[in-house]
């Protein structure tokens, strides 16, 4: 029996739009985040597992009850009365009951009224058929019937009750393809894939119902997703961030003696491969892995967030493994797991660039040292700090690194680094207006991983950073040649060539200068062999393709995300979980940058990006 106080709490929640999340007795869970005209219902049996509840709890409006809950129960009467109140305002309410089919079944069975809400049924059917086309033996059946509940149990609501309350009732039987009918083995990865797909399929179907059958105003099906983040997410995000904060991956795999190694390599007339030295590891990799896999990801109900955090844990595992293998041959194989290897198309593109792009002349060029560069970068950071006072990035000149490096939002410049004057703005906006900016945009988001980086964020980051060089007019022949040469070096590395052989390939076959060839080879062979540097050219190619196919640039600065995360982050933004970003690259507000961007979108090949 549902008491009067509970009924009043539910009614008040619906009236005010506040989230309602409660348990009614032992077996009933009822959640309505806001006043939406739909409800997902699942009645579980007590004689088996309840995997379907994992599909239900990802949505913003659902009821989970046991199979004894029928149309005469207090819960059903309550739902009927609540639905009537919402239907009076919006015209109708959609209730979808889902259940598991019999063992061995391979059919999704949609049970719907004849000639009612055809767009809704069509969207559901097409979504399930698309999913089934990628699975072995699955199919979709549409039954136009008055029976829209599981076999062997009573109606949750009778058709008469639905008519009285303005309810459109639809039933969906889901085949247990994620479970072995003989051994009862549960295929967790198969179910997880379906869970992600089903959420989108269901929301698109409900969206069609709301759009056509009701007066409810909603502009995107993703708005139907949950706007709340369960506690498990915050716990996982916190623990992953704590583990990642214990080490600075790029710093720990970067040699500390690059300049000395270079001198020894030259003095040996390029015959003795350099021996690199590294910073001491401040962590025990084995203990870190123990911590990493003690994190409970299965409690994350939201499929989008579960996907993001599962991927991130896998990436951290690969990084920690690389730290343990640093200085060994296994390091290279782990780097291929993390960054992949140069594919044939990327390799051919790199060769084409090196063969067709001429060298830039450095005659009569003014050079700036690390301290001049640090001042210019600091000034740019100060401009962003005026917009976002919480930005506390600093620039530090260090003797034990080569080039420039951003780690956790802080910019480090090697003491020996110098840069031609015409490349200053390109480097500033590569490092500050991309790497630093996205770190702080991510830092103001609710998830720590938005600043430290979701899995595979590096490729999009470096694509954006190189794009910045083009948009400010500083992408040169030599710069594109260097990015291409990094791909060549990555290829020779995985083919088994030595440091010396790769160095000679770059100088002899592709005309790189000794200085360029050494730096590229040193970066490629650091740690035992690292393919990370192929992501610069690969990221630029993917980004150009994204923009030329209608992709928008501004959403990519929300934090440190990967290409595959773009639609996921957009979904979280639509659902109100991701907030608007405070910072946007300053150069993108200039007329020159806007003009270059439009030309790129209209169609440009890589060599045409040279300014």
UniProtKB/TrEMBL annotation:
<dbReference type="GO" id="GO:0008237">
    <property type="term" value="F:metallopeptidase activity"/>
</dbReference>
<keyword id="KW-0482">Metalloprotease</keyword>
<dbReference type="Pfam" id="PF08014">
    <property type="entry name" value="MATCAP"/>
</dbReference>
<dbReference type="GO" id="GO:0006508">
    <property type="term" value="P:proteolysis"/>
</dbReference>
<keyword id="KW-0645">Protease</keyword>
<protein>
    <recommendedName>
        <fullName>DUF1704 domain-containing protein</fullName>
    </recommendedName>
</protein>
<dbReference type="GO" id="GO:0080164">
    <property type="term" value="P:regulation of nitric oxide metabolic process"/>
</dbReference>
<keyword id="KW-0378">Hydrolase</keyword>
<dbReference type="InterPro" id="IPR012548">
    <property type="entry name" value="MATCAP"/>
</dbReference>
């Amino acid at each position: 029996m549902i008491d009067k106080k509970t009924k009043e709490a539910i009614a008040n929640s619906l009236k005010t739009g506040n989230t309602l999340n409660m348990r009614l007795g032992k077996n009933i869970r009822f959640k309505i985040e806001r006043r939406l005209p739909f409800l997902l219902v699942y009645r579980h049996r007590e004689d088996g597992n309840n995997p379907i509840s994992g599909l239900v709890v990802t949505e913003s409006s659902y009821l989970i009850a046991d199979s004894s809950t029928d149309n005469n129960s207090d819960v059903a009467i309550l739902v009927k009365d609540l639905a009537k109140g919402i239907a009076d305002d919006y015209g109708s309410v959609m209730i979808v009951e889902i259940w598991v089919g019999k063992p061995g079944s391979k059919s999704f069975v949609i049970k719907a009224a004849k000639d009612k809400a055809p767009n809704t049924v069509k969207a559901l059917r097409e979504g399930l058929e698309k999913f089934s086309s990628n699975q072995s033996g699955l199919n979709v059946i549409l039954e136009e019937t008055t029976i829209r509940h599981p076999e062997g149990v009573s109606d949750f609501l009778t058709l008469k009750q639905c008519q009285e309350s303005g309810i459109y009732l639809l039933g969906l039987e889901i085949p247990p393809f994620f479970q072995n009918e003989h051994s009862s083995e549960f295929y967790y990865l198969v179910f997880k894939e379906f869970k992600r797909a089903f959420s989108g399929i269901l929301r698109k179907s409900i969206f069609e119902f709301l759009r056509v059958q009701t007066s409810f105003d909603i502009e995107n099906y993703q708005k139907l997703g949950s706007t709340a983040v369960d506690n498990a997410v915050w716990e996982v995000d916190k623990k992953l961030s704590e583990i990642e904060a214990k080490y600075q991956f790029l710093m720990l795999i970067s040699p500390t003696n690059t300049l000395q190694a270079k001198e020894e390599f030259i003095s040996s007339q390029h015959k003795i491969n350099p021996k690199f030295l590294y910073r001491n590891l401040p962590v025990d990799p084995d203990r870190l892995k123990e911590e990493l896999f003690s994190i409970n990801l299965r409690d994350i109900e939201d499929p989008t967030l579960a996907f993001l955090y599962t991927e991130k844990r896998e990436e951290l595992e690969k990084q920690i493994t690389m730290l343990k293998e640093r200085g060994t041959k296994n390091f290279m194989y782990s780097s291929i797991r993390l960054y992949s290897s140069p594919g044939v198309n990327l390799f051919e593109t790199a060769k084409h660039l090196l063969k067709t792009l001429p060298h830039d002349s450095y005659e009569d060029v003014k050079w700036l040292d690390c301290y001049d560069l640090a001042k210019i970068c600091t000034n740019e950071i100060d401009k962003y700090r005026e917009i976002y006072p919480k930005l506390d990035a600093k620039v530090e000149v260090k003797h034990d690194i080569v080039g420039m490096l951003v780690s956790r939002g802080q910019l480090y410049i090697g003491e020996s680094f110098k840069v031609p004057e015409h490349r200053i703005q390109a480097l500033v906006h590569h490092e500050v207006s991309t790497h630093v900016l996205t770190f702080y945009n991510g830092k103001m988001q609710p998830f720590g991983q938005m600043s430290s980086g979701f899995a595979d964020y590096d490729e999009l980051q470096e694509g954006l950073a190189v794009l910045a060089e083009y948009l400010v007019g500083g992408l040169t022949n030599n710069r594109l040649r260097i990015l291409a040469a990094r791909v060549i070096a990555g290829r020779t590395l995985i083919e088994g060539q030595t440091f010396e052989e790769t160095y000679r390939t770059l100088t002899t076959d592709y005309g790189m200068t000794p200085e360029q060839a050494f730096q590229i080879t040193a970066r490629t062979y650091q740690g035992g062999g690292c393919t990370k540097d192929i992501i610069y050219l690969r990221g630029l190619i993917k980004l150009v393709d994204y923009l030329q196919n209608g992709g928008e640039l501004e959403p990519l600065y929300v934090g440190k995300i990967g290409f595959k995360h773009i639609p996921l982050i957009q979904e979280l933004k639509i659902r109100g979980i991701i907030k608007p970003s405070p910072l946007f690259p300053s150069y993108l507000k200039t007329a020159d940058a806007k003009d270059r961007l439009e030309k790129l979108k209209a169609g440009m090949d890589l060599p045409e990006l040279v300014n």
